[in-house]
Design goal:
36% helix, 14 strands, 3 domains, 319 residues, single chain, alpha/beta, Rossmann fold
């Protein structure tokens, strides 16, 4: 790893350790590219890594070092794009090009520029719908202003393929951050002002449509304590499943446990019990860790194949 990349890294976790070979990965707020370069080695030559950042200085460092890393690992599978993580559809390079041709000099041109931006989102998105397997981020989501947080989580959901997941390391608080701390510029840059509560962070994934939300890592020791409020690092994993209604296909599965029942809130309807479940709901459960908790019932032919030797033996035994 080039020293310049490491020296200017400000992360609070390591989501790259949860990646797998062959995956397409999107890193939000990629900075100088540290997580991207680590991810490139994890996903291997069959995988792909995309870093998104809006800071020209950081992008310059990342792009300068990308060929260096590629030469060392033997393949090039990383690219860096300029954009805001709460608006992953808008390519800021393309917008800059448009504004060079039509600079904003009055209100009418400002309105026109907004239309140009929307056209770019639709025709030339920075990151397309359902185009990546994993979204990662390392201590960046808290830097997004509160009013854009909902849009941010919605964008993460949008770009993930069905069955994809988000693995996000970030700073959370144990209490709501008061307004005076939110308005402190120094605390903003220190990942304090924009931190969500731990509960609010998890709820944001749920509200965006994710399921299977779990904390992979949580630092017990606070990273910082400001005015009695504890701020710590967490790494959360959340999955994107099927959207839309479920349909009866006259199929069922048997839940094997370990719990008596599971409320299928992530599926949007019904309960999963040991007595079976509608297959439409189960089809939303795409994560391997969940699907392994179910068995498909045997067909009549499968049952007969198992018991028929015993039936023949019983009927042929003399009285």
């Amino acid at each position: 790893m080039p020293p310049e990349v490491i020296e200017r890294d400000y992360g609070c976790g390591d989501p790259s350790k949860y990646l797998r070979a062959g995956e397409t990965v999107l890193d939000l707020g990629s900075g100088t590219g540290k997580i991207c370069f680590i991810a490139a080695q994890v996903v291997g030559p069959t995988g792909r890594v995309i870093g998104v950042d809006m800071t020209d200085e950081m992008l310059k460092v990342a792009r300068t070092n990308a060929p260096v890393v590629a030469e060392r690992i033997g393949y090039a599978n990383v690219e860096f794009r300029k954009g805001r993580i709460q608006d992953l559809a808008l390519d800021l390079v393309k917008l800059d090009e448009e504004l060079q041709v039509r600079p904003i000099t009055n209100a009418a041109l400002f309105v026109q520029a907004d239309g140009v931006a929307q056209k770019l989102r639709l025709k030339h998105p920075l990151v397309g719908d359902e185009s990546v397997d994993v979204v990662v981020s390392n201590c960046v989501l808290n830097l997004v202003e509160p009013k854009s947080k909902r849009q941010l989580f919605g964008e993460i959901f949008r770009v993930l393929r069905k069955g994809g997941r988000a693995v996000i390391s970030d700073i959370v608080s144990d209490e709501e951050v008061p307004e005076d701390l939110q308005n402190d510029p120094e605390l903003w840059s220190g990942c304090i002002s924009g931190a969500l509560t731990e509960e609010g962070f998890l709820r944001s994934f749920n509200d965006a449509g994710f399921y299977g939300i779990q904390i992979l890592k949580r630092d017990e020791k606070p990273w910082q304590t400001v005015e009695g409020i504890e701020f710590r690092s967490v790494t959360v994993e959340a999955f994107k499943g099927k959207q839309g209604p479920c349909f009866e296909r006259n199929q069922a599965v048997i839940y094997r446990g370990p719990f008596k029942a599971i409320a299928a809130t992530y599926a949007g309807e019904g309960n999963i019990t040991q007595g079976g479940i509608n297959m439409g709901s189960v089809s939303k459960v795409s994560h391997r860790a969940l699907t392994e908790a179910f068995d498909e019932p045997l067909t009549r032919a499968q049952v007969m194949a198992i018991v028929s030797p015993f039936i023949r033996r019983a009927t042929s035994t003399p009285a």
